[in-house]
Amino acid sequence: MAFDLESHLSAAVGAIREWEEEWGPFDTHKSVRVDEERLRSALARYTDRLRGNYPFVHPRYAGQMLKPPHPVAMVGYVAAMLINPNNHALDGGPPTSMMEKEVVRMLGGMFGYPDDCLGHLTSSGTIANLEALWVSRESHPEKGIAVSDQAHYTHERMSGVLRMEAEKIASDSDGRIRLDQLEYAVRSGHIGTVVLTAGTTALGSVDPIADVLPWREKYGIRIHVDAAYGGFFALLSAEGESLLDEETRRHFRAIGECDSVVVDPHKHGLQPYGCGCVLFRDAAVGRFYLHDSAYTYFTSDELHLGEISLECSRAGAAAGALWLTLQMMPLRPDEGLGPVLSAGLRAARSWHSRLEASDLLAPYMAPELDILTFFPLSADISGATQSVFEAAMTDGDDPVFLSVLRVSSEEFGSRHPGHTAEGQWTKVLRSVLMKPEHETEVEHLHGRVEHFARKVAKGAEAAEA
Ligand SMILES: *Cc1c(COP(=O)(O)O)cnc(C)c1O
Question: Which of 10, 231, 334, 417 has its CA 20 to 30 A from that of 411?
Fold first, then answer.
């Protein structure tokens, strides 16, 4: 049965209204009243403008890392938003602050962190990573970070903000950081923290975390794992049968021994934007955050989330929405979030095998997680990629939305020596298969993309004749 959003939303709104009324009646000030008629018209213009979006909700959207939150999260968000608690301090919203502590412990548990680990939600993965890098700088002043050339671009930007040196390490043909080059950099002694990515944003590759782990003691470095996109796949990383390679699972299991990790519930955790999370294995890093503000903390001696966060105001509703979602969709491999992620993995694997058998398209790389990259077999790969991308998106009857990934032609050539790529960059197609509905849609999506690839190839032939 479809989720009855209207009925659950109105139950949530009703329950909060009932609570409000317990505080006694009062009149809203006339300065904030609005004209019903004008609102109806403005709202119509508003929703009309929102139609300009790509259909992120639909399985035919298989482009970027975008999808609407779970409707349970919407209900949870709206209910708390009516109150608008601020999780900066316990006084700003005691219940959602407690919920934040609960969900943070659950997320820590997902990675194998101890119950007393330190962490909190953030407004994004970027801010969460900034915080982890800031703690790195405070604990290893004068030293820089090492990060792969496949890592999220914000690491370089944020090391700039922190005035830390960021050394870029080359990646291998699987998109993983090269261990030989990383160890060379670490041995030089100027690296305080190695940043590893568990699921790169472009290709979905998982860095060899377990293999870097022994260097923590050996070289006295910190290890930070950026699992903003891939973190929830830790749910599928236990020993035994799984859709993930044993190597991939081994690296996910190693996150539990790393110093810090970032995960974005607003990516794979079914949440609306505004929900990242940073976790520190050792709560002692809390000492770096110490500050003393005269006006924020006064209701209790308990730890305030604002005392361990770089940000000040944060939506309590984000914590509430995640808490409610996890009641219904627990962090488990066999129910809740696990099967959502498994469906995306199966979709990526199934599409990949179709691409391998195709005369029109070829896989660029085998998908490690749920990101699939591929390209049209053509003399002009970049041109054909762009044409297929545009033709698929603008088809009036049955469009498909993909994304375009730009890789260096050198990288392309090393993965596909049989194809000549011209110029510095080569464009390939990329699909993030993060909606479980993609699993049953893959056959159709593949058929459509082949159809567009055929059309583009014919067009190129005709142009040449
Ligand atoms: C998305 C992403 C980020 C940035 O997170 P935001 O929530 O978009 O700020 C950082 N690292 C990786 C690996 C990501 O996929």
Answer: 231
User: Of all helices (H) and strands (E), which one includes residue 263?
Assistant: strand 260-263
What is the distance in A from the centroid of ligand 1 to the CA of 9? 30
Residue of 195, 206, 264, 403 best suited for mutating to test ligand 1, as the one with most atoms within 8 Å of CB: 264
The atom number, within ligand 1, closest to the CA of 151 reads 13
Cα separation, 140 vs 133, in Å, equals 10
Question: Please, which residues have CB within 8 angstroms of residue 9's CB and are 6 or more apart in sequence?
Answer: 74, 75, 78
Dihedrals φ, ψ of 316, to 5°? -65, -30
Residues 6+ apart with CB under 8 A from 463: none
Q: Are the C-beta atoms of 369 and 199 separated by less than 8 Å? A: yes
Angle at 284 between CA 281 and CA 286, to 5 degrees: 100
> Would the pTM count as exceeding 0.70?
yes
Tens digits of residue pLDDT in 37-95: 999 999 999 999 999 999 999 999 999 999 999 999 999 999 999 999 999 888 899 99
Phi-psi map region of 199: left, alpha, beta (phi>0 left; psi -120 to 50 alpha): left
